[in-house]
Every structure is written in C-alpha cells, then in structure tokens.
Design brief:
The complex is a heterodimer. By secondary structure, chain A is an all-beta fold. Chain A is built from no helices and eleven strands. In chain A, 0% of the residues lie in helices and 62% in strands. In chain A, the strands form two sheets. In chain A, strands 2, 4, 5, 6, 9, 10 and 11 form a seven-stranded mixed β-sheet that branches. The radius of gyration of chain A is 13 Å and the shape is globular. In chain B, strand 5 and strand 6 form a beta hairpin. Chain B is globular. Chain B has no helices and twelve strands. Classes of the chains: A mainly beta, B mainly beta. Chains A and B meet through strand 5, strand 9 and strand 10 of A and strand 5, strand 6, strand 10 and strand 11 of B.
C-alpha cells in the first residue's frame, strides 16, 4: 500500500468547526494527492502536492487548504466544515511503475459534518 | 479537460457468468488508462493500467481490459465472475503530458454477483 497512513479514519464534527486530516507516507514519494469520494461522482481531486511546500488546486478545492512541510506528511484542512463536506477522503501517492506514475491510495478517512 | 464516463451505475451478474464494464473517456490524444476496484469500506486497488503498446492488457484477479482508440473506450472484462468480485469499479484517465500525474475518475460501477 506504498506505506500510506491516513488519520483519523473516522471523524464526526459539527458545522463550522475546523478539521484537519493527515496523510503520512514512508516511501519518500514526491507527489501526493487528496481526493474526495461521493456517490455518483467517483473520486474528485481536491489538492495535490509536487514537493515540500509545493501545492496546487484540483477540481473541488473551494473550502479546503493543504500544507506539506515535510515530504512524508500532507495535511488537508477544512477551515470551517460544512455539511457538503461530508465525504470519504482519500490520500494517494504517485508510484513509478513501467516508466509512468501510478496512483496508490490510502484506506480513506470518513468525515461526517453534522 | 479530460473526462470519464461509466454508463452503468449498477450491474448484477450471476456467479460464473462473463462480465464487461464499460468506460468511455474524452481526451485529445491517447491518455493513460486505469481500472481500480474498491471493496466495501476499503481503499482503491489497482486492477490494471494501459500506457502504450498492446491494446489488450491483463490485470490482477483474472481481469483484462481493451483500449479502443476509435471508440475512446477502455472496457473491463472477466470471463467468469466470482462472488468475491462484488465491489465498486472505477475507470480513470491520466494525462501523459501533465507532470502532476493526477487522475480523473468516472462515477463508478457497482457490481453485484448473484449465487
């Protein structure tokens, strides 16, 4: 599983509270990603990182921020959680295979915003 | 921007029957193509991938997929389905020219297997 650990795995919070999800990897991958999974939408990219302190927005970045202060950790923050951010969040890393990068995913973090 | 369509939201097949899951993509050239599988409550596992070359690719668990450029399709097949194949399947595309390596996913197809 490319040594990916997501925490917490489950969280219930209230509208308006801040939430931080953590993705930790042990294999020194340069690229890391945060996706959210919602029924009927598959997975949609929130933000990604291409190195320490280098991040960029994805398709659904509004309401989310990220930080990567060291190679192994990629944090996703919801500054003020809303019910529309109830979702399952997946972290991924890009793993070099056969000359191209393949995404390997963590186990996911289920967030419920009441 | 690239996009992926999986026309079938749910599919039910009998155990032992053959399976084909459809995937159509929109992209200006030949993309990287992937199929992932997600068992309930689990993360995503890579089944197979296509980068270039032979258009029929073999994956894990007896799955295969065929890239058809003329149809912009990358359908997943298995000749004989097992009960353990019940899961959700996602097709994804990547842009070979994008250094960010991110993938665009289809909405998924949930496979149910009847005994």
């Amino acid at each position: 599983d490319a040594g990916i650990t997501q925490s917490p795995r489950h969280k219930v919070t209230e509208t308006g509270t801040p939430v931080t999800l953590r993705c930790h990897q042990t294999e020194n991958h340069r690229y890391m990603y945060w996706y959210r999974q919602d029924p009927g939408h598959g997975l949609r990219l929130i933000h990604y990182s291409y190195g320490v302190k280098d991040t960029d927005k994805g398709e659904v970045s509004d309401g989310y921020s990220v930080s990567r202060s060291k190679t192994e950790d990629f944090l996703l923050t919801l500054e003020s959680a809303t019910s529309s951010q109830t979702s399952v969040y997946f972290c991924a890393v890009a793993d070099r295979q056969s000359g191209a990068n393949v995404l390997t995913f963590g186990a996911g973090s289920r967030l419920t915003v009441l | 921007a690239q996009s992926v369509t999986q026309p079938d939201i749910h599919i039910t097949v009998s155990e032992g029957a053959s399976l084909e899951l459809r995937c159509n993509y929109s992209y200006g050239a030949t993309p990287y193509l992937f199929w992932y599988v997600q068992s309930p409550g689990q993360g995503l596992q890579l089944l197979l991938k296509y980068f270039s070359g032979d258009t029929l690719v073999q994956g894990i668990k007896g799955f295969e997929a065929e890239f058809k450029r003329s149809q912009s399709s990358f359908n997943l097949r298995k000749p004989s389905v097992h009960w353990s194949d019940a899961a959700e399947y996602f097709c994804a595309v990547g842009d070979p020219n994008n250094a960010g390596n991110m993938l665009t996913f289809g909405g998924g197809t949930r496979l149910m297997v009847k005994p």
